[in-house]
Amino acid sequence: MKRLFTFLALAAPFLFLTCSADKNLSQRYQMEKAFGLGEQFRENLYINLQAAAPDDYQKAIAYYQAVKDQSPFRVNLSTLTNRNEQGEPFPKTKAETDSLNEEEKQMLNFTKLAYIRISELLINQKEFDQALAEANGYLSIFTLNDLNRQMMRVRKGQIYDAKEMPDSAVVEFELALQEYAAKNDRQNPVQEIMGLPFYVITLQMRSGDFSQQLVQNAATYFKSLIDSPASDPLSQLATQYLADLFLRNNQFEQAVSTLGTLVDSTGKVFPEPLLAIADLYLVRKGDFAKSRETFNRFVDLYPAHELTPFATYGVGRTYYQQKQYQKALEVFDKVKADYALNPRVVPATQFQIGLTYYQMGNWERAKTELDWLILNYPDSPEGMKAVPFIADFYRGQNNAQLAKSYFEKAVKQYGQIIQKDPKSSAAYAATQLMTEVYLTQGLWQEAANTLEDHLQANPTSPANAEVLILLGQLYEEKLKNKDKANRTYATFLMKFPQDPRAKEALERAKKLSLEMQEEGGQKLPGE
User: Fold this and answer.
1) What's the pTM value of the predicted model, to 2 decimals?
2) Which of 113, 329, 412, 488 is packed most tightly, with the most Cβ within 10 A?
3) Rounded to whole angstroms, what are the CA distances from 362 to 214, 337, 358, 366, 368?
4) DSSP structure class, residue 477
5) What is the DSSP letter of 224?
């Protein structure tokens, strides 16, 4: 009997730990299951965003709320009681978090992500007060500086921005930037956070509070993230953002010198920034000699790099811009011969060859080169541009029949590209070009139909802001359809309330609504 008691005494802690572990495992499984269902529902919700109803959002939120309810780290938000079911304090510091076992760490992460997902869904519903309460609750509970907390700061700033409280938004964005500077993964930079200085400048400009001090503050921030040498991904991205900041501020030389600091251990500028420098001299500065020198330097430093064909192609572009067309042709022909199997550089070069012959006054040769491009690379950006280029030439020559035939050929080509994959970047480019073809011919309804089809196929595309504005103008100014113009502007305002063009869209919508009321028509949807 004594041996039995001794065994039980020794085994009791082990049995307790085993039961505790089993409980954690079961609890973690339930949380993971609820979170997974929430993720699936959320994905389906975004895919079918146009058909989403408030109840659909609530169902998605309910899954994430279940994660919070099952979490051992759940908190009474009304009192911010930071204790779990056993009454133990929730870990608030990194040291306490490190003491958690793996199951508890996973449950902690599910809990944090559930808060973030709920806030994002509420933002999408424009339930900004509820979203703000969720964000404030999270930031009060989870004080450890990690990526989840930083992203919740960003969401809180976006909520204030949506509520037209720019000063409060700026405060949150700056706090997010401070926290990110203090804690980050240098191998995996977060672009959404690192791009906030540009957003802050935009907010201040929108409020009429722009000053050069904002640019200096942004530059100082980016510099604080850059190690010397800038060899890790975070340093490289911060350097690129710093160069972009200088460019936006018309500080060309500072931008170029900043990109020039992106060097490897041997002191060579990395390929991508070196090519960017050459392009800047060509496109922004118009310094063709310096651009050509930089392109040639790229070829010398990186003779076998995947971007080398584009550097050689860039040399030809510098000659083209200087109207040294024969030299340009020699370079372009060399690129096409040396990299005949490169599916990216060949169509770009072929299009440039056609343009060069056109500039030299040899239209027949130019058309032959462009027809070859259309036949062999119809889905390439250049192949898509070649058809309307030929049509425009014939239109300028008053050859209506040939112009019409090439415009029709363009529409057919673009339709085939869109049909292959309506959500692809190529399809969006084809939609833009098809719209331009219709607009050029004054076919307003066909242009509107093309844009409507794009919106239906891509309901969540960020590019829809441009599409909706153009569509609204088409209905208002060309088709004289006040009702559809009104509804289009209303859709734009609903989906892109923070867009700089929202004010003008609202004025147009109000004007149309008033006109329709006077004519006995209907009001703006939602009024």
Assistant:
1) 0.73
2) 488
3) 52, 22, 5, 6, 10
4) I
5) H
